[in-house]
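Figure 3 (text version): structure tokens given as input.
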């Protein structure tokens, strides 16, 4: 069997780790010498795919063809509020797929987030193969604990396209706690919290650790909140200032957006340590007379905290709710672990200290700890280590639509995994042949505010008067929070045919077509590629041959405003 690697597929950066000969997780550096790889994919003028550092280097000159933050779109609908907000300041086009999923327009074609993420995963696979000296086909891939069913399945599909068998989807907070070594506490039961604020998502998990067993008591979060939102606030603030001074809308100019993003991200990092920094962007744009617009201003940490205070406030409610779901008080938590690059921000650390009444631990690199935990768990699955067991929970309520818009919960959130629940249905019409049920995931009593997972159709029911045929629907969520549905007709005991029509995602046929096309393109490119090109260009192929989307399909604009 090939080695199992651990991959932290992040919004901003991605990291891969393996176990060394002593069974200790170790981060693998990229050929550029970076221990984390930017989660950036670009298509250049020669239709080559660049991944990581090479892609980020040409972002300013190729803004429309350089895709970042794609994890925020995976498994999401184009009409989601946070997707529309992301699209407003993104230099590339976000469009609607035929099923309403959020895709990205690349070289005129619609490309799914799964395929774009697969380029990053394929790059991590190649980095790991160069390190271990053998082919790698299996991986543990981490996701935010608050990811829903569609997002988890889309992540697995991205791995499949990248040629990886994703043997386990692991929640990021659990992976982080494993890497911190919290499971090695043998005496007594300890309550810990993992506060994970990355580039695009926020998770909070409350865990009990005892004798090498992790038991997740409750989890919460916000899958549309992360460090990029802080960057975006700065971008919009600066764009407003330029508009007020020059009546020029920078949000409609992809190159200006790309330069602003790079500068704002660098400024935020600088302000994590210093109280002020300078932004200098000469020739950012041109005014109405053709004169250059030069942006140069001092930026302070206090100013950033002022324009982002509501983002900081959004971290509190999920944390308080997770503690309540775990039936614990903040004082019961003995240690708080910080994960994700945004936890370096002083205001975030101060918030954590206020909520839990103790200073958080900083015993590991927040950018690498999740990948190391994934590699550690890969070792457990491979039988190379047996010093930890994970007991996780489901992050969202799972239920069905009843009546016009009511939500009936079948599996409550924070149920221990794996979990199975059953629901009985009876026919309402004579000789009824099927029962159709809409499946949802979320926390609102109003089903329209929750995420539709799909339509479940139970076919092949025996004839009979109304109410005489009863069907038992079983919902099972496995240890990866992946949902499965089975059903049987109670009178005969026979299994009923179950068809789930997902509300989004790639079909099996689409995945196979992408894999086949990319293999053909990869073979053609390998023949034509020079050694120099090979060192800079990802070995995974372009997606130019994907079927074009109807140009009228739900394009989300990049912004724009009218003059006062």
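Below: residues designed for each position.
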């Amino acid at each position: 069997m090939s080695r199992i690697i651990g991959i932290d597929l992040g919004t901003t950066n991605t990291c891969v780790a393996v176990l060394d000969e002593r069974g200790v997780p170790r981060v693998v550096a990229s050929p550029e010498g970076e221990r984390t790889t930017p989660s950036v994919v670009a298509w250049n003028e020669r239709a080559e795919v660049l991944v990581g550092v090479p892609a980020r280097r040409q972002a300013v000159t190729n803004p429309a063809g350089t895709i970042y933050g794609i994890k925020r779109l995976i498994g999401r609908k184009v009409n989601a509020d946070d997707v529309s907000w992301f699209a407003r300041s993104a230099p590339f086009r976000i469009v609607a797929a035929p099923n309403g999923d959020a895709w990205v327009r690349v070289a005129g074609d619609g490309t799914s987030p799964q395929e774009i993420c697969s380029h990053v995963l394929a790059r991590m696979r190649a980095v790991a193969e160069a390190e271990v000296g053998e082919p790698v086909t299996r991986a543990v891939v981490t996701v935010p604990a608050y990811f829903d069913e569609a997002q988890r399945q889309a992540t697995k599909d991205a791995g499949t396209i990248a040629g990886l068998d994703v043997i386990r989807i692991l929640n990021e907070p659990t992976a982080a706690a494993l890497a911190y070594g919290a499971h090695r506490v043998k005496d007594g039961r300890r309550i810990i919290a993992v506060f994970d604020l990355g580039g695009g998502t926020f998770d909070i998990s409350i865990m009990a650790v005892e004798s090498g067993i992790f038991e997740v008591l409750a989890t919460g979060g916000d899958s549309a909140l992360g460090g990029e939102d802080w960057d975006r606030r700065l971008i919009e603030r600066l764009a407003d200032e330029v508009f007020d001074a020059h009546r020029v809308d920078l949000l409609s100019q992809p190159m200006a957006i790309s330069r602003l993003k790079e500068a704002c991200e660098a400024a935020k990092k600088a302000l994590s340590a210093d109280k002020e920094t300078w932004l200098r962007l000469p020739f950012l744009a041109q005014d109405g007379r053709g004169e250059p617009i030069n942006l140069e201003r001092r930026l302070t940490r206090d100013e950033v905290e002022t324009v982002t205070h509501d983002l900081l406030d959004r971290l509190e409610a999920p944390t308080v709710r997770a503690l309540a779901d775990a039936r614990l008080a903040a004082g019961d938590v003995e240690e708080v672990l910080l994960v994700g690059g945004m936890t370096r921000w002083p205001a975030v650390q101060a918030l954590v200290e206020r909520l839990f009444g103790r200073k958080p631990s900083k015993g590991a690199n927040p950018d690498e700890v999740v990948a190391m935990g994934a590699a550690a768990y890969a070792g457990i699955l491979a039988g190379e280590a047996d010093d930890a067991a994970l007991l996780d929970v489901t992050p969202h309520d799972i239920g069905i639509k009843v009546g016009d818009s009511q939500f009936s919960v079948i599996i409550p959130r924070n149920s221990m995994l794996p979990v199975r629940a059953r629901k009985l249905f009876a026919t309402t019409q004579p000789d009824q042949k099927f029962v159709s049920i809409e499946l949802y995931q979320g926390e609102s009593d109003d089903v329209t505010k929750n995420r539709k997972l799909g339509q479940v159709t139970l076919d092949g029911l025996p004839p009979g008067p109304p109410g005489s045929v009863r069907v038992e629907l079983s919902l099972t969520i496995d240890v990866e929070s992946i949902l499965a549905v089975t059903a049987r007709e109670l009178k005969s005991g026979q299994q009923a045919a179950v068809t789930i029509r997902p509300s989004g995602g790639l079909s099996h046929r689409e995945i196979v077509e992408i894999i086949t096309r990319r293999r053909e393109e990869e073979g053609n490119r390998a023949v034509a590629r020079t050694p120099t090109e090979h060192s800079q260009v990802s070995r995974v192929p372009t997606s130019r041959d994907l079927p074009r989307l109807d140009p009228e399909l739900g394009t989300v604009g990049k912004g724009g405003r009218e003059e006062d």
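The CA atoms of residues 230 and 311 lie 8 Å apart.
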